[in-house]
Prior knowledge:
Structural class: mainly beta
Amino acid sequence: MSLEVIRPNLTGDLAWDATPAWSPDGSRIAFASFRDGNFEIYVIDADGGNLRRLTDSPSWERSPSWSPDGSKIAFYSDRGGNFEIYVMDADGANPTPLTSNGQQNEYPAWMRR
């Protein structure tokens, strides 16, 4: 007898969802999705409820990473012409570039002190 593993589709969409990141308290997941014709950052509750789009840009925005206290999300975007690292509040407000070196910056991560 074999057991079938069922993996629920939390986002309820057939879009390409990628680069998920759990919030530090485990209650939410940030991820990038191509559901609107380009990659944007979304957050969803761990149970699949309360989906929220955090970014709204014609640029690609990917690889969200939660700050250790859960108040910020870093991500990379080409909204300035080059892929740079940005940080925003966990609700999507105040996106701010952190790099401006014209290099291919991807996959931001936080360091605990």
